[in-house]
Amino acid sequence: MNKTRFEQGLEVRRSVLGASYVDQAIENADEFNRPLQELVTEYCWGEVWTRDGLTKKTRSMINLAMLTALNRPHEIKLHLRGALNNGVSKEEIQEVLLQTAIYCGVPAAIDSFKIAREVFEESDKN
To answer: Using N-to-C axis directions, what is the helix angle for 73-85 and 106-125, rounded to 10°?
Structure first.
């Protein structure tokens, strides 16, 4: 493992997903899933999210579209929160999800809209 890349990834991951979520995921890692936590932190967050080619905001919008296409509700919820942290507005999220309805299917978009509404309600309470 590249410690520098891991630390950079940890910093970005915390800024997008929230320190408490990330720290809990790392702390709860056991012998079985620790290698996955290290891989995700080092390569996903440290290698790709730190690149200059796209802003965090753009990466978040792309992730919402891809996760909707893949029908990954847990990750959609997580990345919706991250998108809000990265400055993606509710209107922009709405547009991304409308776009997914056309290219990924209406049922997938319906699920993501439902999850987005839940996340918005939670964020409005905080």
So the answer is: 50
Structure confidence by residue, pLDDT tens digits, 18-41: 999 999 999 999 999 999 999 999
Exposed/middle/buried for 124, CB within 10 Å: 0-12, 13-18, 19+? exposed
CA distances to 56, 88, 117 from 48, rounded to whole Å, are 11, 19, 29
**Cα–Cα dist 100/109, whole Å:** 6
Which ranges in the chain are annotated with CATH 1.20.1290.10?
A: 56-125
Would you mind telling me the total number of residues written for the chain in this entry? 126
Of 65, 74, 78, residue with least CA distance to 105: 65
CATH code: domain 56-125 is 1.20.1290.10
Assigned token pair, 79: 């990345």
